[in-house]
Amino acid sequence: NLNNADFYYNPCEIDIRSYQLSLGQSHLEGNTRLSLPNGNFQQFLNEARINMNLKARISNSLLEKFITLPKDLMPLEIKLSAFGGLNDFEFSNLEFNQEAVELKGKLNVKDVFSDAPISALFDLKNIKIINSKLIEIFPTSYYDQISKSLLKYKSFVGSGTLSIKQNQLRTDLRLVNGEAAIVNQSLFNIKIDKDSIKLISFQGVSEIEKIDLSPLHSRLGLVTSKFKISGGRGNSGGFFFNLDADELKLDKKVIN
After folding, report:
1. What is the pLDDT of residues 199-246, one digit of tens each?
2. What pTM did the predictor assign?
3. Span 118-131, mean pLDDT?
């Protein structure tokens, strides 16, 4: 339902200065301006400029139309500010807030409507994972597959970057929990078709520092390790993995 709108139009610009939409318990409000400096729609892809600010609250009942979720799932709140051309668009502020996960970052996407391969850079300013709430965002059919020990950990906070260019996805992420930390840098080689994205190979380096494993088993303690992991798709189409651990410390004792 369109509850309210302030609309302005001329041959070079469509300016929706404010609008409010609702569907059940879901709500969206914001403003959007689409400008075409010369009013030439034949050059729309190259010359059109968009500027928008949106704020939304998406209810469980709407999300369930796309995926099966717990009935008592708390709403998802989204805020974004974005601007640019259709082939160089930037989300200068992108926020997702839910009971179990909070995320804030900046996203730049290029060549979505061009013949060149799509490229993107996501600058993850902050992410917070509330472990004790994680089980509440998964469908009930998955409850038995989630280790309840994971829910005992305090919240992880982190930051990093994800980028895709020339069929390569690069990630550089860091998660911190008190004195504990998980750091990972990875490179994924992918093949993008019209109907699918296929992983061809990957390689990564991870460091784990002072992660407390006692919630998993009472005889375990703090673990510190640095390891490399890689994998690829064989001739038969199956996937193979390689793991190489430089060092593993459990409660300051080196394990070979």
Report:
1. 899 999 999 998 888 777 777 788 888 889 999 887 777 888 898 887
2. 0.82
3. 93
